[in-house]
Predict the structure.
Amino acid sequence: MGVPERLQSVIGAFPEARIVAFADMSARTVLSSAAAEDVTQEHLDRLCREAKASFDDPLEGLAVQAFGDAYGAIVIDASAVKIFLRSEVESSDALCCLCDHSIDLGPFVAKIRATLEEISADG
Amino acid sequence: MQTAERSAARTQDTAVKNPKLPLQMRLHALETASLFTAGGRRIIADAASGVQLAAVLHELNETVLGRTLHIDNDGGKSFAVEVAGRRVLRVTSVEAVADPFDWSGVDALDESHRDELIRLIAAVASPGAEVRVAISALSVANDGSSKGLNVGVPVAALAEAVKVDLNSPPTAAEPVEAPIEEPVDEDAAVGETGFLDRMVSGLGPILVAWIARAPETEDRLFGPEEMVSHLAEFLDDEGEALVEQMDKLSPGKADPLCHVLGATMVEGHCVISLRADGAVLLGVIEGDATAGLLQAWNAAR
């Protein structure tokens, strides 16, 4: 299964997920995405920027200082829930997801964690 | 109205008028409809009830004869405790709970274990979870004959610590904050009704330490002093940068925003920053951040 199919399987399993994108964090570029709606490159670029900002100082500095490396971030605002996961294997690999507020976070995070590690393992 | 319904309504009405009448609570419990899972476990709190913690404490308090209560939730977390005489005597198993406390080395509980026990119960009886119970006999090895004196933790002490009234039906309004050792200012954690306060209340015991800072008001603090002082120092040094980071994450600068960072998000610790009501909260989540975060947000909106 390729990266687009893996991302699409997440959308299929979680209708509350509107965008699931695989990004190269070092290049700040979305490499592949799946979406339940029409999305523009602008949308994807913004999501990638927000992923980068969420894993940035000062909050990351506090997390690392207190508890070690941070591989997961959740950002909630009035419009959506954004979940960003970084690979523990390939530090530049990340999944950036935009979901409705009704998403069941526990199972969703487990699913995208597994998906990300499969993608990183495939190289 | 059917006879049973009239009887239930009368019992509930009496309990409301005189909530301190334990006998009425026993009768009410007997008349309450029960739901069971496929595995035969009885559902004591559904996901939308908002009474998970209170429901578990009521179950523990109903156990006079020695029994083992297996409490689990639909997220796969569970624990088992031996209970007798409305006291929790022993924790016999813990599964899928990020629990730093080693229960295996504790043969006999006493009140010094109260706070750890509350944390364990709250981790399984978390907001938004379906909570179930199964009851079995005490194990032969633990029937009391081979052990020394075991005073246990009175369920009443657990209930008092989390402000659950065991003599009234569980209600969603009960606070679920677990007590923290040496709180800096416990009073600061309650009493307000803004978005930020509703989030704090909704997160409950997983939010183990926090500081909320707003212009021209005193800081509000909660949690162990060493954690809170570290958060306060961080806010002193990085407060402005933290607000800038949140502004990058959300275009509506006046709107509430929540940002959580952690290793796995489902165990260990996470840091949380929250912007709402003109204040910034910085805190530490212990355990599964995914379990109650969105429920707390949605309830606070």
